[in-house]
Amino acid sequence: MKTKVVPTIKLYDYLIAPIQIELDDATVEKLQMQLLNEINEKNIRGVVLDVSMVDVIDSYISFVLSETAGMAKAMGCHTVICGIQPQVALTLAQMGVKLKDIFTASSLEDAMDILNRLD
Amino acid sequence: MIDVNPQDYDIVLKIKDENDIAVSRQMVKSFAQKHNFSLADVTKITTTVSELARNIYRYAKEGYIYVRKKETGADKAVSIEILACDRGPGIENVELAVVGGYTTVERSLGLGLSGIRRLMDSFNIKSEVGKGTVVAVEKRRRGF
Known about the structure:
The structure holds 2 protein chains of 2 kinds.
Chain A: E1 9-11, E2 14-18, H1 25-41, E3 46-50, H2 59-74, E4 78-82, H3 86-95, E5 103-105, H4 108-118
Parallel strand pairs in A: 2-3, 3-4, 4-5
Antiparallel strand pairs in A: 1-2
Helix pairs in contact in A: 1-2
Chain B: E1 11-15, H1 19-34, H2 39-60, E2 63-72, E3 77-86, H3 94-97, H4 112-119, E4 122-128, E5 132-140
Antiparallel strand pairs in B: 1-2, 2-3, 3-5, 4-5
Helix pairs in contact in B: 1-2, 2-4
C-alpha cells in the first residue's frame, strides 16, 4: 500500500518534502515509508525535509526522522532538514535530542546548497 | 495511586489510542496560548504533553492527563499544572528512567522523562510496580 501523507517535489535527483501537516506518530511513520519508497522509485540522491510549518517535534518524531535519514543513507541518499522554528530548536536542545544522520539547514536554498556540495 | 478530583481541573484527557496523543497536544497548546504563555513556553508545554501522552499509550495502554491553570502567592503568579496518571505496569527503576538516554523499549531515544524534567519548572514522579505511575509537572508564566 502506498499512501502519500506529504506532497513531494522532485527536482533533478533531489526530493523536496514540505511538511505542512501536524506530525503525529502514525503520520510520521507513514512519511518514513513514503520517503523510502520515493527514494527507491525515483532514484533520489538527496531528500530535503522542510519543517518550517511544524510547531511540535518531540522525542519520538525526532527519532523517526533520524531513523529515516539513516535508512536513506543506507540507500545512498542524504537527508537535510530545514526551517526548524526557533522555539522547536530550543525545546529539542533543552531535551537533549540530537538529530543523527541528518544535515540541518536554515532555509530551502541552504539545504539545496548542502546537497550540491555533497555530490 | 493518588486521588484526583477531575472537577479541580480545566482539561481532562483520556488517553487510550494513538490519536489521543495528537488531540491532547492540540488541546493543551490552545490552553497555554489562551493564558498568554510565550511561544517558547507553549512549545515546551505542548511537547511535554506529547511525551506524557505517548508514555501512557505505550506503557500503560490507557490513562488520564489533567491540566489546570494555577494562581499562587500574593502576586497571583500564573502557572500551568499537568498531571499524567495511569494504572499501568509502573516503572521499576524511577531514578534510571529520569536519566537521559535510558529506555526499556526499541525505537525510543529514552529522552522523554528526562527531557520533560528539563523543559518544566517542577517535575515530580511517583511510580509503583504493578500499580501505576503519576507524573506531575508545572510551568510558570514568564513576563517575556
